[in-house]
Design brief:
about 325 residues, mainly alpha
Length: about 325
């Protein structure tokens, strides 16, 4: 009957989502290994061919899953294609108007597949990957009402900003390694400005009804807020412009965001004492099993603003006024 069919589909979708998360984890671990964030000794992996759900013909799905980490772009693309096939299947079942929470989680998973694939690509292809991420995240954010989905909107705004920031950094790297043209500079600047917009949107989602930010943030929030301020300050200082007045205005904005970080850390000295030890791959996987959103992932890898970043912010506070005056 219909109820049994629905139960069967829910089980299949449960398996599908586990498979998607597996591909994300394998791609993430592969990219972390490639970038030197972890070593082979950090990785402990046991693959058991089985699933914790009773689903007809489930074993055929499991047998298709690769169990070796990706070492090349070709292998990474196979992981991506495998994960993409399943995430699209899940998205076809979980429509946003019927299963909003599940649909949103699937879009975020899709974004993470693109993100970790980008680590194996050259600058141009990596930018295309991030562009697809940005498009799907921005579109989803536009569809949601913050009044009902505030927590999710915060996540999406942050990840949109982070995605565009990664694009901006790649574009900037390319500009520095070749003779830049006006069109390329304008495009990079546009991406940087858009990244700022989404990070500021993330910050603004924390304002109260009087449009005021809290004097003190919860531990679960403060890291993201200060990281967003630091990133916006950095982006403003890197925006390309030939106009001295515009450059001075950008540096003033950069100074303002750096000063916010300094003010908050000065008034909350205990915050800097909150340090988290490095974690291994198994702990990361366990954490992501329960907190799989990109924002949670980011905050786990950097649970507090590093003291070096605060030192940099304070250094910029002393240097920027002179640079502004020179302009």
């Amino acid at each position: 009957d219909e109820e049994d069919d629905e139960d069967d589909m829910e089980k299949i979708m449960g398996v599908a989502r586990c498979i998607v998360m597996y591909h994300i984890q394998m791609l993430e671990t592969s990219s972390a290994l490639k970038e030197g964030k972890i070593t082979a000794e950090d990785i402990e992996c046991e693959v058991e061919h089985g699933v914790p759900l009773v689903v007809e013909n489930a074993q055929q799905y499991i047998d298709e899953i690769p169990i070796e980490l990706a070492e090349s772009s070709e292998q990474a693309r196979k992981f991506f294609v495998g994960g993409q096939k399943w995430v699209q299947r899940v998205l076809n079942y979980y429509k946003i108007n019927e299963h909003a929470t599940d649909h949103i989680a699937c879009i975020q998973n899709y974004s993470q597949l693109y993100r970790h694939l980008a680590a194996f690509e050259g600058i141009d292809n990596a930018c295309k990957m991030h562009k697809r991420r940005a498009d799907m995240l921005e579109h989803l954010l536009e569809e949601l009402n913050p009044q009902f989905y505030l927590a999710v909107c915060k996540q999406l705004a942050y990840e949109s900003g982070e995605t565009l920031q990664e694009m901006f950094d790649l574009k900037t790297e390319k500009l520095q390694s070749s003779k830049p043209d006006a069109k390329a500079i304008m495009k990079a600047t546009k991406i940087g400005c858009k990244a700022i917009i989404y990070f500021v949107k993330f910050i603004d989602f924390h304002r109260d009804h009087k449009k005021k930010l809290p004097d003190t943030y919860d531990n679960a929030v403060v890291n993201g807020i200060l990281t967003a301020h630091f990133t916006v300050a950095r982006l403003y200082s890197k925006l390309y412009t030939a106009d001295k007045a515009a450059r001075a205005k950008n540096l003033e904005q950069s100074l303002r965001f750096y000063m916010y970080i300094d003010k908050y850390c000065t008034s909350h000295p205990d915050y800097l004492g909150f340090r988290v030890r490095p974690c291994n791959t198994k702990e990361i996987s366990l954490f992501l099993l329960f907190f799989s959103s990109p924002l949670h992932t980011h905050l786990y890898y950097s649970l507090c603003l590093l003291k070096t970043e605060l030192e940099l912010a304070r250094e910029m506070i002393t240097l920027l006024p002179a640079q502004i005056n020179m302009l």
